[in-house]
Amino acid sequence: VTGNTFNTGGNWMGGEAIIRLQAGPTWTGQPTDYWVPTNWFSLDNSDTDLGGVSATVVDAPGATPSQLVLALGKDSNAFLLNRNNLGGITSAVAAANVGGINRGTSAVTYRTGQGTYIGFHNDAGTVRAYRVTATNPPTIVFAWSQSQSGRGSPWVTTTDGTNNMIVWYAATTSSGDQRLHAYDGDTGAVIYAGGGANELMSGTQQWNTGMVARGRIYFGANNKIYAFRLSSATPTPTAAATRTPTSTPTSTPTSTATATATATATATFTPTPAPTTTPSPSPTPTATVPPSPTPTPTATSTPTPTPAPTPTAPTAGKATNVTAISFTANWKSVSGATGYQLDVSTSASFVTYVLGYKNLDVGNTTSRSVTGLTANTTYYYRLRAYNGNGTSPNSNVVRVKTKPH
Q1: Which of 85, 113, 125, 201 lies deepest, with the highest CB count within 10 Å?
Q2: Cα–Cα distance between 319 and 292 in angstroms, integer?
Q3: Domain 316-401 sits in which CATH superfamily?
Q4: pLDDT in tens, 38-72
Q5: Pairing status of strand 126-132 against strand 115-121
Q6: DSSP states along 173-209
Q7: Rounded Cα gap, residues 291 and 284, in angstroms
Q8: Residue ranges of the alpha helices (H) in 281-373?
Q9: Domain ranges of the chain
């Protein structure tokens, strides 16, 4: 993946691209062997380049195409491409706004009985997972998110290749808690929350990912390697690695001392086992004197709760924080709504959409930063509110023009 280029005069010269190399390695220069977003020149000018994160190869059985490659841009968007025919300067096979800038780390991909996922940690301070749908073409659908500070690249373990998929993340650098964290691959439920005093690491770097071998997780820090193992009292099967996330940039090597038993205590963790239901024993009847009959109480009906109605259309407000490449969309909350969908377009009638901003689920909030835009351009946005009973009509449309520079 390549980054910014300079002084191009608007002529593409190899930047902001995913490049596929043939054997040799050689590059053909043909559109089948590179992909560039159509707004590459705007990305150059705003330093929101595509090359902040390494590419990740993704296989999504049931999708067409199914052999994909993922790019995570600094403009907060995720892109899926057909890795057998990248297509040149064109739209991606699938794209979605993923709620935060990604840079200096790598994504991970894994597959469970519920589908194919991509996962990553972003600069918004969240570990996120999205599902790649088995459709033609595939789409990127939000799966789960957990707030977590620091910066790093996640990795995945499983007990048998499919079941008990766990996403691991080390909250590295001084901005993180320098502890190991683990989440359920399908739901994001917290499985391991960092442990106690014996599990605290120091000197961690964002460039490193965890390693898994023989039932232990190893994490390399400055001049020390930390080992985590399952507690012997825990009946949970030992996790075994099945995937290695795409490599991240390698930091400058430093001499690494071999940890000894006295220098580094082996950290332990105990994952929370899934609760099991214990059947109640059936009581043995005993002979009793039949009680005198009592009047049968009159049955009273339990009132049926009234479901919340489909929410009304929200009212979109004036955009704020307008720059050459971004603005903040605002709206008023709607009673009974559990979330909102945002559309952004350069057309007042929304015949086309800005990449990643069609039916974008922004959650239950009343503002959203819209990024990766072009300077001195007129945009339009609108909202819909939703809950478990349906989605509202569209809100009013708000017009906003980005600044010239």
Answers
A1: 201
A2: 75
A3: Immunoglobulins (2.60.40.10)
A4: 998 988 888 888 877 889 999 999 999 999 999 99
A5: antiparallel
A6: STTS---EEEEETTT--EEE---SGGG---S--TT--
A7: 19
A8: none
A9: 316-401
